Amino acid sequence: MTNNKYCVIMAGGIGSRFWPKSRQSMPKQFLDILGTGKSFIRHTFERFEKIVPAENFLVVTNVKYKDLVLKHIPELKEEQILCEPIGRNTAPCIAYAAYTLQKKNPDAEMIVTPSDHLILNEEDFRAIIAQCIDFASEHNALMTVGIKPTRPETGYGYIQVSDREPISKVKCFTEKPNLELAQTFLRCGEFFWNSGIFIWKVSTIIEAFQKYLPEHHMLFSGVQKALGTDAERNVVELAFSECHAISIDYGIMEKADNVYVRCGEFGWSDVGTWGSVYQHSRKDRYANAAPEEGCYLYDTRNSIISIPKEKVAVVSGLKDYIVVDTDDVLMICPRSEEQNIKKYIDEVKFHKGDKHI
Description:
This protein has 357 residues and is an alpha/beta fold. The protein contains 11 helices and 16 strands.
């Protein structure tokens, strides 16, 4: 009997907020930033492997990361890696996967997940995903997973629910509110963080592309015949060069009237910044997140230090700082200013080119 459950892992980003650890040649999803012994993408694959058989995975990534994906997930075959020639945000990424799956199995049920999130309680998480799959298979529904907020986070998108049922119709989306609005959302109790994890039938998401993103539907349905053949690379390059960059949230989820959310608590974080790494890292008695060996701290508090294993670091007199050392780049900045990392990257790139990026 055919297993209709498929998992699509989106793994094309470069994780610039984790510079200088995350680079264009080795982005965040292939790193073990939390010190677990496994990369983010490996954790993601193992998390869903208990729901979806290995042969039903697709990874959508930049063409230059294909070999890295196969190295981190050797269970996959080359044809399971869909290579984007250029990044165009999540809507073209999902369209590429959806039209590929429709050709392979028109009855496919898709789970779409980022490659670089942290889930602490995986059993509860998988139970919620199973409920979403059941709901989506029985309804013409675009499902997403919401997270109960624990703080007024301004870096996440929010989902407002229409009722307090476990699975609720979505009332509206709000992207990255200011602090005052985020505090209001937290008090209200109707708003949940948007995890960026989606579940739907392939037929449902393709109907949504037809209705809300007709340009993308035209491009990817037009190349569908060549998908899985020797001509795939050329036709996909053409489709990506012609489609505009847009997220699935802006392009479809915020417009559709059949969007539902299953909210839950399972220890989720998108681990999107050095601050979130600090939050989830083991700390010493002075609230420093630092390696247990090779790092000597004096009069230092509330800081995160990341150094290569073979290096020795002596840090003295820092409070609330980020220190990241690599073979060719050293970054030291206050934790409160990590939003400036992209500015630092632009400055380094201007003076030194792409060598250190």
